[in-house]
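In the design runs reported in the main text, the only information available to the sequence generator was the tokenized backbone. The following block is the verbatim input for one such run; it is reproduced so that readers can re-run the procedure and compare outputs position by position.
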């Protein structure tokens, strides 16, 4: 979306939801805001350092924005969650644990069928038209298998009504509407009862009570075959009633859930782990991840997560403050129909609770590290970096004599050379053998260009304290002082860091040091080759 189109949009100052669309009018992102105009404008004026490069991809695809105004922030929270479930935009959070959930569909046919509703990649439900119900969780009393539901309510399974009754009729699983053995009104009564169960208007217990009354009536009238069918149906429901009672007993206990989030800024991904504890015992564990794009955050994750499961705990413990915590709690209370409290465990004294969160964060850290070369992990720990140094740029000056001075920048991604990130420069502004100033020029030219490549996670300078100071000065001038930068001195292979008076000496066997030496030597080779080629001209 160009700035001109943005100006032409009438953007309200009210709370609500915004729907971003691409050139094909397809919704690609849905967000909420307390003030829609301020939030949407921010996409085109500033970017968060953690999510900026991924959000830029989103912004580049925006062709139109639609607004839905709400009366308050709570309504905006809930509407955003419902719209995300409906449209499943590619840039929004989509829970990766979706195999736990099932959707059911009652088809829009004269004699409806019950099907498992399946989706395509765009999130649209496939197959015949009909009403979709769910999500339902496997193992929950709310989730009844399709086969059992069909038997209970005598729902046909044939794709097309046959001309003769099939096996299902003879084993009492279907009343055979195909041969007019049951009127449409009688058939739809069973469908209506099924809909009441799926929509939560009727419980399993209530349905059982109604079946028992019907069984007694059939027996009193001497219709023993009908009474026997109902008795068999009640037998099938017995286990489900037991499960439902167990769930109700569990729900009365103050369940608590621990949800830890760890962001891998290098990849622009947030990793989340949830541990559910019931009666003091860990009863479930789930792992999710989502892209750090737009408003995707812990707060938006929590709303999507808890609006997709049947039981929301009374207490939720997290390791960072979710945005708009009070509004989020109020939104969850509307869904759960009971009070929900969210606590930042960092401000709690309870040792046991903090230990559980530490366990989650250790697991998340191990999960993140598995995606990186061991040398990258070792270097992060050795330099105490905030993010994994997956992308490393290294600068070196090749200055033979006083006539020709060149510089080189090499790039490694996950400890492998990335030739598309290599750059060579002929020194333009510095005369004589001033390596410090030349390094400053190289760094400034490399990152002040209109290069669309991702910025590095770590910059390495071939040299010691002086070369490092020159590089840091250029980064400050460019407004990039948040990028870690170190110097690697050849003589003793010592690492110079900003804010540290003494250099760091790593063991020669350290994989992180070996990686730095490799990229430094590659920068030296690349720069020398360029210098030699110029001298031959």
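Verbatim output:
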């Amino acid at each position: 979306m160009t700035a001109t189109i943005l100006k032409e949009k009438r953007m309200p100052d009210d709370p609500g939801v915004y729907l971003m669309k691409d050139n094909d009018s397809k919704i690609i992102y849905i967000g909420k805001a307390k003030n829609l105009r301020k939030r949407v404008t921010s996409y085109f004026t500033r970017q968060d350092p953690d999510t900026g490069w991924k959000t830029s991809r989103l912004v580049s695809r925006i062709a139109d924005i639609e607004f839905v105004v709400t009366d308050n922030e709570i309504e905006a929270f809930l509407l955003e969650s419902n719209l995300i479930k409906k449209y499943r935009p590619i840039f929004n959070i989509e829970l990766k644990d979706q195999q736990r959930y099932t959707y059911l569909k009652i088809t829009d046919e004269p004699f409806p069928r019950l099907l498992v509703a399946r989706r395509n990649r765009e999130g649209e439900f496939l197959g015949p038209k009909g009403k979709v119900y769910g999500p339902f969780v496997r193992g929950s009393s709310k989730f009844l298998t399709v086969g059992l539901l069909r038997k209970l309510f005598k729902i046909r399974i044939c794709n097309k009504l046959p001309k003769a009754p099939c096996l299902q009729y003879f084993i009492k699983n279907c009343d055979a509407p195909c041969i007019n053995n049951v009127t449409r009104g009688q058939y739809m009564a069973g469908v209506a009862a099924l809909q009441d169960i799926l929509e939560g208007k009727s419980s399993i217990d209530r349905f059982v009570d109604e079946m028992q009354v019907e069984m007694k009536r059939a027996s009193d009238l001497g219709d023993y075959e009908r009474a026997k069918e109902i008795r068999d149906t009640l037998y099938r429901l017995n286990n489900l009633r037991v499960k439902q009672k167990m769930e109700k007993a569990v729900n009365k206990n103050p369940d608590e859930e621990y949800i830890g989030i760890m962001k891998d800024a290098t990849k622009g991904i947030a990793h989340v782990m949830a541990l559910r504890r019931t009666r003091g015992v860990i009863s479930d564990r789930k792992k999710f991840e989502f892209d750090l794009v737009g408003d995707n955050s812990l707060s938006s994750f929590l709303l999507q997560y808890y609006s997709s499961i049947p039981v929301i705990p009374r207490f939720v413990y997290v390791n960072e403050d979710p945005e708009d915590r009070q509004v989020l709690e109020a939104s969850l209370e509307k869904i759960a129909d009971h009070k929900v409290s969210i606590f930042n465990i960092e401000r709690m004294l309870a040792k046991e609770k903090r230990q559980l969160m530490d366990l989650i964060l250790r697991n998340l850290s191990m999960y993140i590290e598995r995606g990186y070369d061991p040398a990258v992990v070792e270097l992060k720990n050795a330099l105490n970096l905030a993010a994994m140094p997956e992308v490393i740029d290294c600068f070196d000056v090749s200055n033979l004599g006083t006539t020709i001075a060149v510089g080189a920048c090499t790039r490694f991604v996950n400890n492998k050379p990335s030739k598309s990130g290599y750059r060579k420069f002929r020194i333009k502004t510095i005369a004589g053998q001033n390596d410090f100033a030349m390094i400053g020029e190289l760094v400034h030219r490399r990152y002040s260009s209109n290069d669309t490549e991702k910025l590095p996670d770590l910059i390495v300078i071939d040299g010691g304290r002086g070369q490092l100071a020159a590089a840091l000065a250029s980064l400050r001038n460019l407004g990039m002082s948040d990028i870690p930068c170190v110097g690697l001195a050849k003589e003793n292979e010592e690492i110079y860091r900003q804010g540290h008076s003494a250099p760091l000496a790593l063991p020669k066997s350290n994989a992180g040091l070996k990686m730095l030496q490799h990229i430094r030597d590659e920068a030296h080779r690349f720069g020398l080759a360029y210098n030699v080629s110029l001298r031959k001209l």
